[in-house]
């Protein structure tokens, strides 16, 4: 007969009880991490004011259908102030923000000062849904959130610099509508025919192009994209400036030549001015960020153009392929956040297959996932856009078409902005401007 061991039973009971308490605690922790009806979690986000209000009024209610106990507040900040405010907050003793929306070249700088959480760490892996599928992202947009072997951000607004076409103006000029096979030589040959006087007063009132020419950090992306399409690179294999060679000089000469076919005063034009000119039907092409497509071709509140008049594609083809430029807005979690799980849940939903589909259909935001781009979108106008975007991702990955990746990228980009603008304004020859920029950028990076 087996002896009754009261002590052993007691020990087993204690172990079972302890395990139950531990499981209960873990369950409560997981539940509390995403809030409860009685005690919701409050998450605060800092983002570009260009889309912060739209996210707050449209995206957050949609997110709350699935996660009603996470209360999200989004503070919009002007682009030129966003990096500095994000850095100041994230490195302070008591950060305000749980989520930082960081532009493409800012991730290295934020990560280097310890401001961001590694989203592939074991801690975060426990909060990541099984179907999230990291491998589904296109390589180019996902890489924008990487630094030093870690994944600090995920693509939330996968912008690419693209070429917008007013097909009506091409038709009126007797020219075929461009395709993604259009070369830079062909583009420049056609451009003079697109500058026309349509009302007979002897002055041109429609033009071939409008884009970035003004002195600002995003202007060099036009020159860089032209250079990349011809095989040039910003830095060499040792991380030193390589953009002042033949490909860089030729690209800057082309960027400057575009002014000959742009509206009067275009040397002071940037994002807003070129966008307005295109939406008013004044220019046949625009090099701008793809995310403005819906507001330029679909939304009658913001454009005079009809959907059938507008197409979008990669920039013209150079000696090595078509042009594009990566401009990804990354969702990142502050390393000091007290609500990391809830913050990651917000970002995870935004970048999920479900979130991308909703964003594309309702806000015109470009997705980063291969499965999303290969799917049949709910809105018919998105189908050709998805095809063009996939081509842009592929071109960007092949040609390394992005800004300098460095903790000092912002300072380097400002140097490029200064010198590119001097060349565009005719204050200095392109070759001299790039030599000066190369010397200054070398000092910044070293």
List descriptors:
446 residues; two-stranded antiparallel sheet; D-Maltodextrin-Binding Protein, domain 2; alpha/beta; single chain; disordered N terminus
Report on the architecture of this protein.
The chain folds into two domains: 39-159 and 327-387, D-Maltodextrin-Binding Protein, domain 2 (3-Layer(aba) Sandwich); 161-324 and 400-445, D-Maltodextrin-Binding Protein, domain 2, CATH 3.40.190.10. A hairpin with a 4-residue loop joins strand 10 (315-317) and strand 11 (322-323). The model is unreliable at 1-31 (pLDDT under 50). It has 18 helices and twelve strands. The protein is α/β, with parallel strands linked by helices. It is globular. The chain starts with 5 loop residues before the first helix and ends with a helix.
Specify the CATH homologous superfamily of the largest domain: Periplasmic binding protein-like II
Strand elements, count: 12
Query: Uncertain spans, ≥5 residues at pLDDT below 50?
Result: 1-31
Helix content: 40-55%
Instruction: Label the overall shape.
Output: globular
CATH class of the largest domain: Alpha Beta
Radius of gyration: 25 Å
Give the N-to-C terminal Cα separation.
Answer: 81 Å
